[in-house]
Amino acid sequence: MPRDGALAPTCPPPNCYDAEPIPEAARAEIERLLASGDLFRYTSENAPVSQLEAEFAAFMGTRYAVAVASCSAALFLSLKALDLPRGARVLVPAFTFAAVPSAIVHADCVPVLVEVGENFRVDLDDFRAKFDDSIAAVLISHMRGHTSDMDAIMELADAKGVPVIEDAAHSLGTVWDGKKIGTIGKIGCFSFQSYKLVNAGEGGVLVTDDPELAARAIIMSGAYEHNWKKHPGLQNSFVHWQNQLPLYNTRMQNLSAAVIRPQLAEVPRRVRDGLANHDYVAAKLNESPWLDVPPALGPETRAPDSLQFNLKGDWTDAEALRLQDEARARGVGVQVFGLSKDNARAFWNWQFLGELPELPKTRAMLMRACDTRLPARLTRPELDFIADAIVEAAAAVKG
C-alpha cells in the first residue's frame, strides 16, 4: 500500500541507476586481453590505452590526451604539470565534489572557494573579488554539467596570465559557443566513472594542446624509464624531463580502455537523448509553482545525464526533507544536496580543508537544490513517471 498522500503508481518505477550495457566490441577485446594477459599499458606500443588516447584526442579536437586512473588523478596531474609552487592558491567553485578540492590539496596547493549561485554556476562578482594577484591557477568545476560563464572567466584569467583547468567530469559532450567543454582552458579533465556519460567503472583522461604540459603529465602519470617512447611525438620534451619529475603511477590499464573505446561512438546519441530527456522533465517541473529548473546560459548546449532543480518559494528544512520522502514513496530518488548527511558535495563537510569560509549564497543554494538521476536511455513513459512523481511530491508537501 502507498503511504498516506502517495498515489499508487500505474507502472513500476524506472531504474535510474543501472548504466547502459557495455558494447559487444568491448567484450571481444576483453576476452583477447584476458587470454594474452596483456593488461599493462606499456607492454606494447599499440596497447588499448594508447589507442584510446589517440581516439579521445581526435574526438575532442585536441593535440594530446593522457588516460589515467580517474578524473581526480587527471586534476592532480594537471596541477602538477603546471609546476605550481607549494602553497599556490587555486580558485575553485564551492559547488563541486569533495575530490576536486582534495586534488588541489594533494598537489600541495590551497583551494580558494568561490560562491555559486542559485543557477548552480560560479558567482562572477565573488570570482572577481577573490581573483587577486595571489591566485596562481583557476580550476573551474562544471558541476553536474552546468557551465559557468566561460567567456568572462577566460577573459579574467587571460588578462592575468593565469592558467585555467576545466573539471569536465560531468560535461563530456557539452558545448560552449561552438567550443567543446574541456578544450577552452589550458587543460580539460574527464571522468569515466560509472555515473558518467561513458562508463568504465573508474577512469579518467586529461586533454591539452600544450606539448610541455602533456609531456610532464605523461611522465608523472608513470611513464618510467623509457616508456614515454610509446607515446607519439614530444620526444625532445620527454628527453628533457626524463628523471626530473616524480612518478605518481596513476596510469590507466588496458581493460578500462577496452571498455571505454567502443562507447565513444555512442556519445553523440547519448548527448542527444540525455538533453531531450532533461528538457522534457524540466518543462514539466517548471509548471509547478514550487519547483524551478534554471535554464542553460545562452552559449551553452548541455549534455546532461541527471537533473537538478531548486525548491521555489518558502521551504523549511523539514518540508525539503519531506519532499525527499514523498518522492521516494512514489518510486523516485531525489536528494537535497545540503540536507543529505555527510554529502560530499556540501562544502561544510570538507573538514580536511581546516577552517572553512562563510559562503552564504552557496549554502543557501545547497539547502534547497535537488538532484535526481536521469539517464539517456529512459523512455517517455519513464520520464513522465519521474516528472509526475516529483511534482506530486511537491504538491503533497506544499499543496
From TrEMBL:
It holds the Pfam family DegT_DnrJ_EryC1. The active site is at 196 (proton acceptor). GO terms for biological process: polysaccharide biosynthetic process. The lineage of its organism: Bacteria, Pseudomonadati, Pseudomonadota, Alphaproteobacteria, Rhodobacterales. The keyword Transferase applies. Keywords: Aminotransferase, Pyridoxal phosphate, Transferase. One of its GO terms (molecular function) is pyridoxal phosphate binding. The keyword Secreted does not apply. This is Aminotransferase class I/II-fold pyridoxal phosphate-dependent enzyme. Belongs to the DegT/DnrJ/EryC1 family. The modification N6-(pyridoxal phosphate)lysine is found at residue 196.
